[in-house]
């Protein structure tokens, strides 16, 4: 079974001060349905890179939820996880916020966008993701920040875009890193998303 390391968001208990790590049950259900083993990475570890290495995961998924800058502890943990993955060749999939984190890591920038929260819309897809989604597909969308074409970081290539040219998926030309702005765990592009995760996990940067 493919072992999937999943980052988590930080949430607060209602009525009292007790921050905790959390992740949508959608990820658990998705992993079970696809025969993946979920491995959750907490945010308060003193050495998250050593923890990730000990998990012996096949892929790191930087999950969505919350904007970068909303919680410095999560930002710091995920940045260390991403740097470890890039340095060791561990494949990375960034989902929504996770894609923005990858872009930021390589000097890119995000911008505000309207009409992308809780909707579905079409995107045009380019190689190598056409093997999974075809040349055009419909995606779910749950974000208020986007990456414009001129906002891509160094070494990143846009492989899906919406009608206005906003980047909806990216790959790094040298690293085994992919980002998508849609949410595989929210069950819309099951076939393409599953094939992408499995191929990235087993083959790494399959586009090189």
Detailed description of the structure:
The protein is of the alpha/beta class. It has a single domain (2-203), classed as Class I glutamine amidotransferase (GATase) domain (Rossmann fold). It has six helices and 13 strands. It has helices spanning 25-34, 48-55, 72-88, 97-105, 130-133, 190-203, and strands spanning 2-7, 9-12, 19-22, 36-41, 59-62, 92-95, 111-112, 117-125, 136-142, 145-146, 156-161, 167-172, 177-180. A nine-stranded mixed beta sheet has the order 4-1-5-6-13-12-11-8-9, sandwiched between helices. A hairpin with a 5-residue loop joins strand 11 (156-161) and strand 12 (167-172).
Structural class: alpha/beta
Q: Work out the strand percent.
A: 25-35%
Regarding CATH, which class? Alpha Beta
Task: Please give the order of strands in the largest beta sheet.
Answer: 4-1-5-6-13-12-11-8-9
